[in-house]
Amino acid sequence: MTGYVDVLGVGFGPGNIALAVALDEMDVHLAARYVERRSVPAWQPGMLLDGSDIQHNAARDLALPRNPRSRYTFFNYLFENDRLFEYLNLGLPYPFRKDYARYVTWVAEQFADRVDFGLEVAALRLTGSEGAGVEAELSDGRTVRARAAVVAPGRRPRIPEPFAGSTDDRIFHSSAYLQRRAVLDALPEPVIVVVGASQSAVELVLDLARSFPRARVVNVLREFGHRQKDLSPFTNEVYFPAFTDYYYDASEAAKADLDRQLRHTNYSASDPDVLQALYAQMYEDRLDDRERVRLLRHTRVTQVRAEPDGLRLQLTERHRGDATWLRADVVVLATGYHDLTDESGPELLPEVLAGIADLVGRTPSGRALVGRDYRLRPRPGAVLPPIYLNGLCETTHGLGDAGSFSLLSIRSATIATSLAKELSAAAGWPEQHEEAR
């Protein structure tokens, strides 16, 4: 069975949910269909920790910066669910992550008739006259043909050495934390290692210490200590649309310099509230003559051995070179996510685009060539239909594409506008249908 649509969305997380909203509200008359591997809409299900909050202004949601009158805003979600006044009365600087996850699901459910849940796009290839469209092979055997594709599978968890390739269920990434932590329930006094120095790492250490009072939690970090995020309002103008233009037009050397300057607005740094909570927790534990949380500074894991009674980790101090061994019951990797890289790295393009990678142009450093409108550009002499990357373009567009909601709605408008322009200029589907048959 083959279906035909104007736009195929690969993935239905926040990026393509925001796109669905934009296509609806901008009156772009294109038939869109989305394919999502999860069986139900969800956002960060593995990290909906008690008490955790989001890390951006609540108004920077799926729609409001693009259209303040949208019915798909976070505040309208609260209003329609009879919680607006209670939320306003909380006085919280940021919403609970659980609340924002429900908001994302609430919006997604309003487009559920356009989504195939519980399916994956196994492969994407070109079809039609001179590659005028795309054909997606779905995991249930069906195919879908489209005039354009918007690829938004989310960023892939980064699993560093020596954990890469491990299938041991005692080692898992933070993105699967809540689904996997049940392995600890049967252990009376577990030893849990959290690897990383991110916001997620601090949140996990706190949650583990609170959820498993008899556990020993060891946080392994390469740095001297946990760093506070750069929350300066001046620095946070990186989440303005104008900065996306500036970054996109910058040379690769300038981009590298900007990345160094701005790294701690988003990476290897945490919000003040969780840092204070962790420091206070460790201090209070010392008052009680116990050490439930231990930081191993300037340390990296250099070997891991899986044994029946636990995991053996070799820990190497980065400056002195001292190596010691630690037994652990579970290792949680708070090690972030992959960005798109050059051809020598792990991810030039999302895996679903492997079949067309040779047709995509390259920057001077070997990265995929992406237009300001997030559309992949072909190499010289090649032809590509409109294929867009939604939420994967930090290396070309800056921190607004680093997994934050801050510019989601603006990016969706850019892609929707480009789709309308590109597809209005292309041949209509009836002729392509006949050719495809």
Short note summarizing the structure:
It catalyses: L-lysine + NADPH + O2 = N(6)-hydroxy-L-lysine + NADP(+) + H2O. This protein is α/β, with parallel strands linked by helices and 437 residues long. It is built from twelve helices and 15 strands.
What would you note in describing this structure?
This protein is an alpha/beta fold. The protein folds into two domains: 2-156 and 338-436, 3-Layer(bba) Sandwich (FAD/NAD(P)-binding domain), CATH 3.50.50; 171-229 and 267-333, FAD/NAD(P)-binding domain, CATH 3.50.50. The protein has twelve helices and 15 strands. Strands 1, 2, 3, 4, 5, 6 and 15 form a seven-stranded mixed β-sheet that branches. Helix 6 runs parallel beside helix 9.
Percent of residues in β-strands: 15-25%
Please indicate the count of domains: 2
CATH-defined superfamily of the largest domain: FAD/NAD(P)-binding domain
Task: Give the total of beta strands.
Answer: 15
First CA to last CA: what distance?
Answer: 12 Å
